[in-house]
Amino acid sequence: MNNLDTYIRRMPKVELHVHLEGSVQPETLLKLARRHHISLPAESVEGIREWYTFHDFEHFVEIYMTISSCLRSADDIELIAREFLAGQAQQNILYSEVTFTPYNQFVNCRLGFHEQLDAVNRARSWAEKELGVRMGMIIDIPRERSPEIGEQVATWVIDRYGDGVIALGLAGPEQGNPPLKFREAFNRVRNKGIPRIVHAGETVGPSSIWNALEVADPARIGHGVRAIEDPNLMDYLKRTQLPLEVCPTSNICLRVFPSLKAHCLPELMKQGLRVSINSDDPPMFNTTLVGEYRAGTKTFGWDRVILRDLVINAVDVTLLPNAERHEMLEKFNKDFAALESGPE
């Protein structure tokens, strides 16, 4: 198969760094706003799509919180989860580990956490049966909130771990909100043997990653690209093979790098760090996971071997139980072999 675009579309994939609320398409946001009589900055799909266009981080947060304010019921949560999973299925993303921020809906719309998770689980069951795709939920602390709220989110994670919940996360504005702020929440879930996933090293430099390592002992780092600025940190990440969830287009939109060509991803790979490719908040950054892989082939010259290795890397660092992860690795290897032997 010589056509890399076709190869990328057909190859099996997993995604490890994507936000449920940040994946809501303009059409769906309009539907939700009209359902609840909420005014938006635009009244057409084209207008919402234009409003979604990234300008700066403050504008991004405004969009994110507007989406959250339109999630008023369990039906709304189930709708966005179903539509997300349908979109993943269209890209042949067979498994996703999805960051979800239920505290925003809890505080803004008085929508209980358990009610939200039950709705997500209904969508998960539907997607596995009807579409053949699966997901696990990383319930994250909005890092601009207080340590006490972090502990509340930790309680939710402990209560529902294993029932669709696979980890405690930390996301949101890095500046002024180091992982240290939530040490107690991380300690509580760590004592229960629950994994931690921390966004770090995107808008704040290596110190944010070092702090995440010390405070949370994470299973993966979300982003982590600013590690390139610290040789000692690069050595540590290479030695430990701690996975980095790299979101190239997101990094460009947030001006971490001026262009994809200037991104450090090739250097991270060259130095032997373990990375995966992800879309973060796809409609807000005008991307998809398929689009991220296609951009890599165009900008960095990735071939089928590199594409396969990146996908297998991602499968290998999922939070699935060992037996399920090995089963998925076997399936993906067979799928790649079938792609290679199929018609050109």
Give a short summary of the structure.
With 344 residues, the chain is of the alpha/beta class. The protein has helices at 4-10, 26-35, 45-52, 57-69, 74-90, 102-109, 113-130, 147-160, 183-191, 206-216, 231-240, 248-253, 265-270, 289-300, 304-316, 322-341, and strands at residues 13-19, 93-100, 134-142, 165-171, 196-200, 220-223, 244-246, 275-277.
State the main characteristics.
single chain, alpha/beta, 8 strands, 13% strand
Could you explain the architecture of this structure?
This protein is an alpha/beta fold and 344 residues long. The chain contains 16 helices and eight strands. Strand 3, helix 8 (147-160) and strand 4 (165-171) form a beta-alpha-beta unit. It is globular and about 50 Å long. The termini are close together.
Layout of secondary structure:
Elements: H1 4-10, E1 13-19, H2 26-35, H3 45-52, H4 57-69, H5 74-90, E2 93-100, H6 102-109, H7 113-130, E3 134-142, H8 147-160, E4 165-171, H9 183-191, E5 196-200, H10 206-216, E6 220-223, H11 231-240, E7 244-246, H12 248-253, H13 265-270, E8 275-277, H14 289-300, H15 304-316, H16 322-341
Parallel strand pairs: 1-2, 2-3, 3-4, 4-5, 5-6, 6-7, 7-8
Helix pairs in contact: 1-14, 2-3, 5-7, 8-9, 15-16
